[in-house]
Design a protein that fits this description.
The complex is a heterodimer of chains A (325) and B (114).
Chain A lengths: L6 H15 L12 H20 L1 H5 L8 H26 L5 H9 L17 H18 L8 H29 L3 H20 L11 H6 L7 H19 L9 E3 L4 E3 L5 H11 L3 H14 L1 H14 L13
Antiparallel strand pairs in A: 1-2
Chain B lengths: L26 E7 L7 E7 L3 H12 L7 E6 L16 H4 L19
Antiparallel strand pairs in B: 1-2, 1-3
The chains are: A mainly alpha (325), B alpha+beta (114).
The complex binds fe (ii) ion (FE2) (2 copies).
């Protein structure tokens, strides 16, 4: 926020800070510091992009689901992720950015999505590991966001968190079934957990000492906990869940620290994290290319629907510009 | 500081922003009646080219788990809203009339059904 002596701006800033401190929600038309708005747009957009890119690794297995039951569940889950993306794009738009603009930034690599989705889904068990670990990590991250200071984001997160618990449970059930199946199925489940465990821990972001924006986001009540706090919470939840599956987590350093009351875990390979962020993960190019292709191939549908609405003179039809008023 | 970027309910200020993805469809606000006997409440917003598709999109987006028995979609541009400022004099007439509340009145002890 630019430094200013303008008394109206100073008073508005004081009102904003009082509201945040008092746990009052900030709503779209309220005055807010430019940096708060920019932080929210970046975070919500990245979150929305992650939801829709996240459809790809799992959609990869829809046609090969082993039963009609599993197929119906997977379709419903992938459809939910599309819905999550839409709730979040809607929340971002209340901050004054357009949907087309956000998609453009995703397609041209100017805005990011979670690097977890740059890993491949090699076997059917990956669908289970994603539900249990990736959706599980997302839930750990997202539950505190239901109390985020920005009203539309918090409301979107409430809807999303309600739907995520089905995602996590179906994944856990899938792995549980495989873990009790044939030796091959069991090995497949273990292999999927081995591959998804560390990338899931990376989903919480860089360690606190290396996360310069965290402090300000906590002060603004956008974030409620640091990356390391949430990561620890997730590990503590997962260790007993892995034991119930009869599967192991690929970390020889895992041990319960009686004094702290938490599970200690080994060092995360942050070089790998940064490489994937830079675009060097196994599927970065494929994911973005698929997203662009889907968008381009849908262009005629968008155009036809707009033309049809304009021809019928239906309310709102073909008046994209005027809605901005 | 910046405020009031959006339309009446906040969203849509940048609708029609072009770029390689083209203009957005108009924005609609969605209201859902969770069940009979309850009023429609605001659920969120979506883009659609016309009312018919807005309703279909709203069904897919906001009622995948039976969250509603009735939907309204309203063009966001058609909503007029009061100022977001809590100190706005617009609401002042309500603030200084405590006699509109039953607790303003003293009633002798023992009087019932009042
Ligand atoms: Fe999601
Ligand atoms: Fe999910």
């Amino acid at each position: 926020m630019p430094v200013t002596d303008d008394p109206a701006t100073t008073a508005a800033l004081a009102r904003f800070e009082r509201a945040v401190a008092a746990e009052t929600r900030i709503e779209p038309r309220d005055e807010m510091p430019d940096a708060y708005r920019a932080t929210l747009v970046r975070q919500i957009a990245q979150h929305a992009h992650s939801e829709i890119i996240g459809m790809q690794p799992e959609a990869n297995w829809i046609t090969r689901a082993p039963s009609l039951r599993r197929k119906a569940i997977l379709i419903a889950k992938v459809q939910d992720e599309a819905g999550h993306g839409l709730y979040l794009y809607g929340a971002a738009e209340t901050l004054g950015v357009g949907r087309a603009e956000l998609l453009d930034k995703l397609h041209t690599g100017r805005q990011k999505y979670s690097s977890i989705f740059n890993y491949p889904t090699l076997t059917w068990a990956d669908v289970g590991a994603i539900g249990w670990l990736v959706d599980g990590a997302a839930i750990t991250n997202q539950v505190p966001l239901c109390r985020c200071s920005y009203g539309p984001y918090a409301r979107a997160m409430v809807r999303i968190c309600k739907e995520e618990s089905f995602h996590q449970r179906q994944g856990y059930e899938l792995l549980h079934t495989l873990a009790r199946g044939t030796a091959e199925q069991r090995a497949m489940a273990q292999d999927a957990v081995d591959r998804w465990w560390w990338p899931s821990l990376m989903m919480f972001g860089p360690p606190d000492g290396d996360s310069p924006r965290t402090e300000r986001s906590v002060a603004w009540r956008i974030k409620r906990h640091t990356n390391d706090e949430l990561r620890q919470r997730f590990v503590d939840i997962c260790v007993p869940q892995a034991a119930s599956l009869g599967l192991t987590l690929p970390d020889p350093a895992l041990r319960f620290d009686e004094a702290r009351g938490h599970w200690e875990f080994g060092a995360i390979d942050w070089d790998e994290f940064r490489a994937v962020l830079r675009g060097e993960g196994p599927c970065n190019e494929e994911r973005l290319a698929q997203r662009r292709r889907a968008h381009e191939e849908g262009a005629w549908v968008r155009e036809a629907a707009a033309a049809y609405a304009a021809k019928r003179g239906g309310r709102g039809g073909g008046e994209g510009e005027e809605v901005a008023a | 500081m910046s405020g009031t970027t959006g339309g009446a309910v906040g969203a849509g200020s940048a609708s029609g922003t072009s770029g390689a993805s083209g203009a957005d469809w108009p924005l609609w606000e969605v209201f859902v009646r969770p069940r009979r006997g309850l009023a429609h409440t605001h659920a969120g917003s979506l883009h659609a080219p016309d009312a018919e598709l807005a309703l279909r999109n709203a069904r897919d987006l906001f009622t995948r788990r039976g969250e509603g028995v009735s939907l309204w979609v309203v063009p966001a541009a058609a909503i007029a809203a009061s100022s977001p400022d809590e100190r706005d004099p617009f609401f002042a007439p309500a603030a200084d009339k405590p006699y509109r509340h039953p607790t303003f009145y003293e009633v002798p002890d023992g009087v019932r059904h009042l």
